[in-house]
Design a protein that fits this description.
heterodimer; A: 138 residues; mainly alpha; two-stranded antiparallel ribbon; 3% strand; B: 115 residues; 3 helical TM bundles of succinate and fumarate reductases; 0% strand
Chain lengths: 138, 115
Amino acid sequence: MSPGQVQPEYRQRVLPPRVSTLWWLGKGTYFAFILRELSCVFVAWFVAYLLLLVRAVSQGDASYQEFLAWSATTPILLLNLVSFLFLIFHTVTFFDAAPRAMVMKVGRNRVPGRVVLAGHYAGWAAASAIVCWLLLGA
Amino acid sequence: MVRQHSEPYLWLLFSAGGVLSAMLMPSLLLLFGIAFPLGWVRPPTHERMLAVLANPLTRLVFLGLCVLSLVHWAHRFRHTLHDGLRLAHPMITALCYGAAVAGSALAAYLLWQVA
């Protein structure tokens, strides 16, 4: 073997394996992982949508009515329907990770994961109720 | 890539943005994105929207929601490009977090205008 050549087994040990750009299409769980990660795009879209709403409200009743009419157009409605599904996916997966990410203790005892999870869902229900009360309440 | 020692702080903001957006966005999107446009529920009047947005506490929560959600997007999107599409470049990092900062500044300006 000449000095410039590298033995195949040595090359395999040193170089990291090549991973396809489309590795996430190889398995259902990988695809779900990428969908979960891409939910952040819909979070950003909804921030932009909310800021357009705030601008419309600050510009007066006519602008607000224009925004409401624009929000009822088919492309925006479809985009928001897809965004809603992704946001629900984001919420469920984020809450699902909470018991593993948060170590809460009462005294010396660790709070069980199902209690942490239930607390998140209770917080979600309370926050949603407050939003509805603020916008729709008497 | 961002230097390693900033990662825990970015993760903290990412996590806070993830929780806040998970708590508040589904109901807001259901109302403003689906229920009002489809006529399921009558949308609030302009006076009511103005009153809600003029409240200092509402504006603070709204600003926190926008800022943290944008940081959440920036952090997760950067890692999605890195892990999913194998794209890692300092310019991507700068664009992601730069857009989050610009969006946060815009949110603060627009909320200031409501008063």
